[in-house]
Amino acid sequence: MDRAPARLDSAPADFIPDMTEFRGVFPYLVSPVSADGTVRTDVLARLCDDLIRADVHGLTPLGSTGEFAYLNAAQRMAIVQTTIEAAKGRVPVVAGVASASTADAVAQAQAYQKLGADGILAILEAYFPLSDAQVESYFRGIADAVDIPVVIYTNPQFQRSDLTLDVIARLAEHPRIGYIKDASTNTGRLLSIINRCGDALRVFAASAHIPAAVMLIGGVGWMAGPACIIPRQSVRLYDLGRAGRWDEAMALQRRLWRINEAFARFNLAACIKAGLSIQGYDVGDPVPPQAALNAEARKAVEAALRELA
Predict the structure, then answer these.
(1) The overall pTM is greater than 0.70
(2) 10 Å Cβ neighbour count for 282?
(3) Sign of the CA dihedral running 257, 57, 83, 282
(4) Eight-state DSSP code of residue 244
């Protein structure tokens, strides 16, 4: 793993990011959708621009916080296209691809690459249980179909078929599968992946993990919804970890973890949308049948943000 210290100041105006090397803070973007199903592209574009100005390292539309499971194909395409256009090449865009069908997932990945996505976040949805070989073939099918890096995403809490360590190790041998975003709550599993795969597969943490701890064991950053509402603090935490300033990093991590504690009590997408609404972004409510936070829950989110401000 590359452990060179990072600068703790902003990047110079002429800085050109490496669009094929992913590391740092990648907020999982919300999907602002009106009650009639219209994507609020202006709101999403403004959010993307503000996050980039806050020095995040990349953007991930259609992650878990993006409610990918509740959107139709046209909505997903609009969200990815808006994100790419808003990014304007300033940071890499890693677009989420999710399906129960390999053919559909491949079609999504190819379409997003054609739009200009810099990477694919591959998510497996499943109705019937799948064998390890079938799970592996799904991710290989996506990676075989594109020419851009692929991040494999595993979330045992919500997926019917998980990725075993053996499957992960075999997928790490694929030339375009270079990253994994693991949303288990098992940090020991992350260390097992790092020990097993080495530099062939770089690990991103999720909001279910303590990002500073994941960086300490060799992780390269995190992809998570909370970074949408605390981007500057998230980037600061990453920079401190990269610089090896672990006492300061853990002090900041303890403060930031209060956001995760508040969100663990409620629906994640609803929490992030509520937080963004409090910050002045008209992102709308979660896509039904999900519901917006009630007044009491919204106050809890507001209090957590106020404490961090």
Answers:
(1) yes
(2) 12
(3) positive
(4) T
Peptide bond into 12 cis (omega under 30): no
> 94 - beta bridge partners?
119
Model pLDDT, residue 6 = 40
User: Angle formed by the axes of helices 246-263 and 295-308, to 10°?
Assistant: 170
By the 8 A CB rule, do 26 and 57 touch? Answer: yes
Helix (H, G, I), strand (E, B) or coil at 93: strand
Beta strands in the chain (DSSP E): 24-27, 94-99, 119-124, 150-154, 177-182, 202-205, 221-224
The CATH-assigned architecture of domain 24-308 is Alpha-Beta Barrel (3.20)
- Number of helical (H) and strand (E) elements in the chain, helices listed first: 11, 7
Tell me how far apart the terminal alpha carbons of the chain are, to the nearest angstrom: 33
CA-CA-CA-CA torsion sign (121, 276, 157, 104): negative
With the C-alpha atoms ordered 25, 92, 46, 74, is the resulting torsion angle positive or negative?
negative
List per-block mean pLDDT (blocks of 10 residues) for the chain, which spans 309 residues: 40 56 97 97 98 98 94 98 98 97 98 98 92 96 98 80 91 98 90 96 91 96 94 97 97 91 84 96 96 94 89
Asked if 272 and 228 count as a contact pair (C-beta separation under 8 A), the reply is: yes
Contact 121, 96 (CB under 8 A): yes
Tell which residue, 256, 281, 260, 255, has the closest CA to residue 271.
260
